[in-house]
Each structure stands twice: as C-alpha cells, then as structure tokens.
Predict the 3D structure of the following.
Amino acid sequence: MKVLGIGESVIDNLYLVDDEKPELRSAPQKHVGGPVLIALLLLARLGEDCTLVTSLGNDEDGELIKSLTKHENVTIIPKTQRKTKVNTILTSINTGQRKKIRGTTVHRKIKDLGRNFIRQFDVIIMDRHEHDAFYEVVKMKKPSAKIIIDPSTEISKFTLDMIKYADYPIIPIEAVTPTYTGSLEQIDHVLKRLYEWTNKPLIITAGDIGSFIFNGSTAELLPPLPVKAIDTLGAGDVYRGAFAFGIIQGWDLKKTARFSNIVAALQCTKLGNAAAIPTKEEIMQYQDTLLEGKILTSCTLNNIFLQLQSKL
C-alpha cells in the first residue's frame, strides 16, 4: 500500500533543562521534526511506501530534512520557501516532559495537488496546518483510502472538520481536558459530543496512562508499555505512524492501539524527534506482548478520569 503524508516539517532545537534550575540549559541539539514527517519515517522503517508533501526552506535546515528523508527512503515533494521553521524545545531531565516554543516562520500553503495524484494513495496522514489540502483530499481521494489526522490540541471549526472526516480520529487528551482539571461530567460531555460529530470510535492519546478508545458510551483503556521516559518529543507523531501501520496490516482497533502504545513508549526512551524513532527490530522485540494482549485493560471512563487526576 502507498502512504501519503501532508504537513509541516521543522527543525527542533532541543535543550535539556533541570526543573529545579530552569534558567540553566544544555547546549542545543538540532533534531528533525514535524508530526507527519515523523509518522512517515516510522512507516518507512517498517517497510511501507511513503511520500511526503511539505513546505521546506531553501536553506541549510531544509537540506538537512531532504537528506534524512532520502536516507530513510521517504519520497519528498517539497514546496520551497525562503526559510525552514525552527522551534525551541525545552526537555526536562527530571520527567522527560517538554515545552515547545514555536518558531515564527509561516509555511507556504499546500494546495492544488490534483485528483490523479491524491488517488494513488491508500492511507493519508495529515496535520492541522494544511486546510486547503485537507479538503482536497476529502473530496478527491479514492473511496477505499483511509485518513488519519493530527489535530494537535487545537479546537477550531477546521479541526472539528478533521475529526469528522477522518476515518481514524486520533485526539490528544489535552484537547478534551487541557489541564485535567475538568469534572468527569465535562469530559464525558465533550467525548460524547465529539463522538456524535464524527460517528466513529475516538482514539484518545493520554500520555503516560496510555490511550483509550471511546465508543460513544464506554471507554477501553490500553495502558502504555512501562519505560523510563527520557524525552516525550514525537510520541504522538509515531503513535499515528504506528496506527497507520496497524490499519495497513488489517488489525482491529484494539490491537492497532496496543501496537501504537508500544511504539510511542519506545520513542520516549531516547532524546530527540526523528533521532528517537525506534527501529523495526526494537519494535518487534515486543511483538509477543502485543499478540498475547497482556497490556489490554477494560476500564470505565470514571477510572480513566481518576488516573488523569492522579497526574496533577
């Protein structure tokens, strides 16, 4: 099967920070990032045929991204602009959690891809930055093609459309309850409204408690692979890449989400974004765990809420 990714590519300047001395930072480390790019790099490592359409600067950072995608066998179709976007990432050496300070470079919009181009692909992964391209994909894709989205935590008319038209709406928990401080009734209300809007199971990524599938009334929690987190950067990105891989394999939602949890957890054991993507060999070490289903737990939404609250 052929996978198309459409979204921004960036450079992340990563600094290690001690929570007790936040004014002290390590020297910056330069890493390649971008939600869709990271998802495609993972899929290419797993043997899938991937093409990325992205805006790239006509600069040294853009050349770095081109070099990496070529090395990883991802076909790239760049929309050239003057500069590549550069973000600042502050990663805690204590918890692995990170803070992103977004760069100010505005990406050139991707549009006018054409029906014949879009209809080549079986799975299409998109981020929230490409409004025009998203509606083109919805209108022009072949009926069997599946859309996977990365809306980030943005709540807008456009991201609600992404959720509605996606075949697999994968949403971060922060979009449902930004600080985990809402009530259970509020979370339940938001999830039910989102389910009514899309009329499909919602896959909610929830950090170190794993992910869960909400079917409109009940939820099933899939706990994460227990690892020591070094850096959480890119975990949601590889989750979507792993999810796409599961769909390509014909797995059901639970097995696909378990696999995605494993890959996202492994991503957190190394520093960086593209540099931290696990290899196929590293992932397959956990295949027996996946097949045996040892990390699947039936759970009520109330129990999930209590786990979220415990993280405060």
About this structure: The first strand starts at residue 2 and ends at 6. The two ends are 42 Å apart (CA to CA). Residues 2-310 form a domain with the UDP-N-acetylmuramoyl-L-alanine:D-glutamate ligase fold (CATH 3.40.1190.20).
